[in-house]
Design a protein that fits this description.
13 helices, homodimer, Aspartate Aminotransferase, domain 1, seven-stranded mixed beta sheet, transaminase activity (chains A, B), transferase (chains A, B), Aspartate Aminotransferase, domain 2, about 425 residues, alpha/beta, aminotransferase (chains A, B)
Chain lengths: ~425, ~425
């Protein structure tokens, strides 16, 4: 272990992030399980990339068969990308009928911002102050914690609005959030930059997945439309049925975005991502910019992505996400009765978690406590993480085939860890 | 065919590039061959992504085996990325010993420019006026033909220098090119922007792979160093033995770059890319910027990339590139004796081509002629393209296992096409 960490440092440089004080050395995966080099099994409650389960046999077979047959770029004609984009866009509402395939969600968001500029002729972008949309020079600036002292990027063109927080800042109908968006639009227009787009995750997953009524985003979306800007929904985490109630989380929010970006779960770990938009916006982008992505939309990536769609739809994993999410909320609420440190329980389908506070009245975030809990769960064989503006909320976002027996193991283990972890420690 | 083109337009939007007036509908690949839907076989003289041959069995097996075992991100410990980066960096000269793995060459170049800014504290970038370094908002601006009317990106921070052209602008020792780089540096410094980096492909492949003596880049590299900037070598096309004489083309140019970016051939079509740099630059970047790439360096990508390295080294494909490249130069020079339209023949290992001119004295580019030749070759079952500032040079850049019998078929077919294609047509 020490040897691996030393090799990482020498070969990859300093500050390459690992999870846990005692990082896990993984060697094998299957379904919702990971194994380490000593043969110990871990329940994976974190990895949304392995959307239809680690090493899903259908996805592996699709990759192997296509890799052995043909893998090349889209300057030749091939059915793979066409069949996939047809199936993919069929899951969206009109007029979201066209797509670009890339390799990463970062690339997709990088294109989406250029689309906004191409369509509006303006550059002002609005995002929340606790978000993350990727790692290119342009989109890395969207994330406040990522803005370095130097760096090409959005810089002056960016305005942050306060991330929604249903636990601390009531905003039942989204009017408060919409007012902030309107103020940021006004500021961008006043400064001469002009407003191009609002980009957000429809479930605000990085922000701590606040509890929101259906249609909550409608007022903000209307403000964006009135100002002539684009609504970009980053569904890299929230899509492909994870929200439980809808295939795409924006559908639950009652809006039809102008651009939807996709990534992580799309190929179950195979590097495929993309975006879906309207024919009008696509035509504007394709006329204003030359864009070609060598690996984007290659036959193997499309085969992997098609197998993921097949699995989600044929095994009805969206319904599973809805059912397990509801159960998880019940089970976590039971723990909340027992442990005052749990200030709030939230869930959006197959994303759920508990927010830790030092005091239920002041709601002071128990961030260090959350860190201890995450590390102790890892020691007991349960893998998850934490997120939110205060990094005090458990991030439980397992592969979609996560079942009742897995939820039971998670909750039982969490119960034991909370019992052995006093807040005052 | 018409149906596929109509579906492409509806699903992917307008202006999505295809090769040839009559695009090829590919369904299968093996070694240096591609097959279309009618079962017709094509000799692939173009695709460098399939570096060790289409559907290379060792690479396919590596992908299948690892995809069935584990595929996850690098926040856990895994030997795959460490073993690969160790093997990869062993092919570089000191002090190029550390790496970041990404999914695309575009992502790698996007990081490289940020590294330059992180190290120098300045933003001025120099590139040639006939280059291409990728498709993110930041790096797409490096390519003059790609700069849209609008667009986030390098904008004011970019200076272009004239692409080297051994056929028209003699510069035997690289002093002329170095003087242009010096002038661009002076201009950036004068304007207050400051100079951060020179980025180039060491073989100037997009520019038409000019004939250059070994060590040709040294004067430009020295100018960069004197000014305190970084030399970024984009070896996305030129690396992994393609130059024939060296594993990395910059080694032939007599320079040790600060950053080397990698892409296309690295995983034989699997989306893996990256960059190699010094520990000092890596540490500066890792301190100044938070960077994480979900798919970057995953076990499957590393297994694919390792299999490519194994193939290149065990089958000594670099030596094959050197041998076939030399033969190709001889065979193309024979055609040059026969056809006055061939103004120049050039080769750099497994990249070779003929430049077409309307008149050998004026050297007026025969761009439309080159287009006709490329399309007629496609009709006769030979796939290649054209490049250079005037798009009048054949771009012959086949998979590395390209052998003498393939070269013979290529030259014989080209001979027949040139015979049936009068310049005055």
């Amino acid at each position: 272990m020490a040897d691996l960490i030393a090799r990482r440092r020498a070969l990859l440089g300093p500050n390459v992030p690992t999870f846990y004080d005692d990082p896990v050395h993984v060697v094998r995966g299957e379904g919702v399980w990971l194994w380490d080099a000593e043969g110990r099994r871990y329940l994976d409650c974190y990895n949304n990339v392995a959307h239809v389960g680690h090493c899903n046999p259908r996805v592996v077979r699709a990759i192997c068969d296509q890799a052995a047959t043909l893998n090349t770029h889209t300057r030749y004609l091939h059915e793979g990308i066409l069949d996939y984009v047809e199936r993919l866009t069929a899951t969206f509402d009109d007029p979201l009928t066209t797509a670009i395939l890339t390799c990463t969600g970062s690339e997709a968001n990088d294109i989406a911002l250029r689309m906004a500029e191409g369509v509006t002729g303006k550059r002002g972008i609005i995002a929340t102050d606790a978000t993350y949309h990727g790692n290119t020079a342009l989109v890395s600036h969207l994330s406040r914690s990522n803005v370095p002292e130097v760096g090409f990027g959005l810089g002056q063109y960016l305005r942050h609005v306060e991330a929604p927080d249903s636990y601390r800042i009531p905003d039942p109908d989204g009017q408060r959030f919409a007012a902030q968006v309107e103020a940021a639009i006004a500021d961008l227009e006043r400064s001469g930059i002009g407003f191009a787009a609002l980009i957000l995750c429809p479930l605000f997953l990085n922000e701590g997945f606040p509890t929101q009524a259906e249609g909550w985003l409608r007022p903000a979306a209307e403000a964006v439309r009135r100002a002539g800007g684009l609504l970009i929904c980053d569904e890299v985490q929230s899509g492909f049925g994870r929200s439980g109630s809808h295939f795409w989380a924006h559908q639950r929010q009652g809006v039809v975005p102008d651009v939807v970006t996709l990534g992580k779960p799309m190929g179950n770990g195979h590097p495929v991502a993309g975006l879906v938009t309207t024919p009008g916006i696509m035509a504007r982008f394709r006329s204003a910019f030359r864009y070609f992505n060598t690996f984007g939309g290659n036959p193997v990536s499309c085969a992997a992505a098609m197998a993921v769609l097949d699995e989600v739809q044929e095994r009805d994993l969206q319904a599973n996400a809805a059912r397990i999410g509801r159960l998880a909320a019940v089970r976590l609420s039971e723990l909340q009765q027992k442990y005052p440190v749990i200030g709030d329980v939230r869930q959006s389908g197959m994303v759920f978690g508990a927010e830790f506070v030092l005091d239920r009245d002041t709601k002071a975030p128990a961030s260090a406590y959350a860190d201890r809990v995450v590390n102790r769960l890892r020691q007991r064989g349960v893998l998850l993480s934490r997120l939110g503006r205060h990094k005090n909320t458990l991030k439980i976002r397992p592969p979609m085939p996560f079942g009742e027996e897995h939820l039971d193991l998670l909750v039982t283990t969490l119960d034991a860890v909370l019992a052995e972890t006093p807040v005052s420690e």
